[in-house]
């Protein structure tokens, strides 16, 4: 007996594809929604194996001489470890006026202070930084420190100045007197580059040299650039722009966000690029306490799955 043929109508391929696409939409949207908010940041990369950086985060000391707190932010499968030692800065008169004006315009209350007090507090923090870096050097083969304010263009000059200033007076950084240090720097420039006039050497660079001298243990380590010259210049101009915008009293939140990104976020993202291209998988960075790389690193890791960062934050006692 012949079997009766059953007429089975095949669904058009296009309909199957539409159905598959429709089923996948919630998964795609859900996955994007979760990842865009950071819910997947701590999950391992698919197919990852534990890296040396993962182990470096796990083994990083949780108690350090000179530090009040150490916080670890581990992202599994990382290739780079950024160690952020938080600091405060010495200021010039112009910078102090700028800070006070911004506080006033933004409506924040503040206690007026003197340059001497600010210099003293910065020196107290950097005495702790010196102890922290010394301890870290004993745990890792540390050859360099990334110092805020150093650009690729002035990296060699700053290191030469640290060596010359410390050579002439090994105790010069024990004083929080930035005027005395500035005089010593101008004299050092005269010895390094005889026949030139350096009386107009910018005072804000004195603070960078002080930071570099303390963070490199008086020149035992190399002070490495943290700033892209173009981004750094834009950030400095943005400070002035922010004051002018606030003075106008008519501005949008989008305008403030744009300027704030120039001042902070662009510099922070730029540093991650420098560290990624650098030769040190464990990078110790001395940078202001107002900077926070957690969000920058989470965004970076989503875009660079094979070049991820983990983060350790160190808070000196003096902060």
How many strands? 6
Whole-number count of domains: 1
In whole angstroms, how far apart are the ends? 94 Å
Main β-sheet, in a few words?
A: 6 strands, mixed
The percent range for strand residues is 5-15%
Gross morphology is globular
Arithmetic mean pLDDT: 83
Order of helices and strands: HHEEHHEHHHEHHEHE
Structural class by helix and strand composition: alpha/beta
Q: Strand order of the main beta sheet, please?
A: 1-6-2-5-3-4
Tell me the number of helical segments per DSSP (H or I, 4 or more residues long).
10
Any low-confidence stretches, pLDDT <50, length ≥5?
1-40
Helical content band: 40-55%
Radius of gyration: 26 Å
What does this structure look like?
This protein is α/β, with parallel strands linked by helices and 319 residues long. The chain has one domain. It is built from 10 helices and 6 strands. The protein has helices at 13-36, 52-59, 93-105, 115-139, 155-168, 178-192, 204-215, 229-248, 253-277, 294-303; strands at 67-73, 80-87, 144-151, 222-227, 282-288, 309-316. The chain has a 6-stranded mixed beta sheet, with helices on both faces. α3 crosses α8. It starts with 12 loop residues before the first helix and ends with a strand. Residues 1-40 have low confidence and may be disordered.
């Amino acid at each position: 007996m012949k079997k009766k043929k059953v007429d089975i109508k095949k669904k058009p391929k296009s309909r199957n594809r539409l159905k598959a696409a429709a089923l996948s939409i919630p998964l795609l949207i859900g996955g994007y929604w979760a990842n865009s908010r950071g819910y997947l940041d701590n999950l391992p990369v698919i197919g990852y194996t534990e890296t040396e950086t993962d182990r470096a985060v796990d083994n990083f000391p949780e108690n350090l001489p000179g530090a009040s707190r150490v916080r670890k932010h581990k992202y599994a499968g990382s290739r780079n470890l950024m160690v952020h030692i938080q600091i405060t800065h010495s200021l010039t008169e112009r910078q102090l006026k700028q800070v006070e004006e911004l506080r006033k315009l933004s409506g924040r209350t503040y206690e007026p202070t003197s340059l001497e007090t600010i210099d003293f507090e910065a020196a107290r923090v950097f005495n702790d930084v010196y102890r922290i870096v010394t301890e870290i050097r004993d745990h890792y083969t540390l050859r360099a420190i990334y110092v805020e304010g150093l650009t690729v263009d002035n990296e060699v000059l700053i290191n030469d100045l640290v060596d010359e200033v410390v050579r002439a007076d090994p105790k010069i950084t024990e004083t929080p007197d930035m005027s005395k240090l500035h005089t010593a720097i101008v004299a050092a420039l005269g010895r390094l580059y005889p026949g030139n006039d350096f009386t107009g050497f910018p005072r804000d660079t004195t603070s960078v040299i002080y930071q570099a001298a303390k963070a490199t243990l008086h020149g035992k380590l190399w002070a490495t650039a943290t700033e892209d010259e173009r981004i750094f210049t834009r950030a400095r101009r943005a400070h002035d722009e922010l004051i002018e915008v606030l003075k106008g009293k008519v501005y949008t939140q989008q305008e403030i966000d744009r300027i704030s990104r120039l001042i902070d976020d662009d510099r922070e993202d730029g540093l991650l690029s420098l560290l990624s291209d650098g030769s040190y998988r464990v990078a110790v960075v001395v940078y202001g306490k107002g900077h926070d790389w957690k969000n920058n690193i989470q965004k970076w890791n989503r875009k660079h799955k094979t070049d991820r960062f983990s983060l350790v934050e160190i808070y000196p006692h003096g902060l």
